[in-house]
Model the fold of this input.
Amino acid sequence: QVQLVESGGGLVQAGGSLRLSCAASGRTFSNYAMGWFRQAPGKEREFVAGVSRSGGRTDLAGSVKGRFTISRDNAKNTVYLQMNSLKPEDTAVYSCAARSGLSSSELPPRPILRYNAWGQGTQVTVSS
Done:
């Protein structure tokens, strides 16, 4: 199974930016479509962004469209989440997840239960 480790979280003021990274090991990274999810205190975990195996297709939740960008570097076994114009409501633990069995151009699913592996998460806190 692929192992995932997130980094890049922290405390930022509203309007600021952060870039999260998720480093994969243990399996061929390019065999996995990747997703980013977040969970705020007292709320369900929710889909934020997804990227196909090739990196050529991306999917963003409506709440982050226009502010966040997902990308991947298969040579570095890493997926990124660039977060701009951050808002206090973006405060959450952000986790990356891997999904196998998809074609190179197929977007990963949004439902949480359809992923094979998860990272431990990284905290993002946006102050007002």
Observations:
- The mean pLDDT is 97.
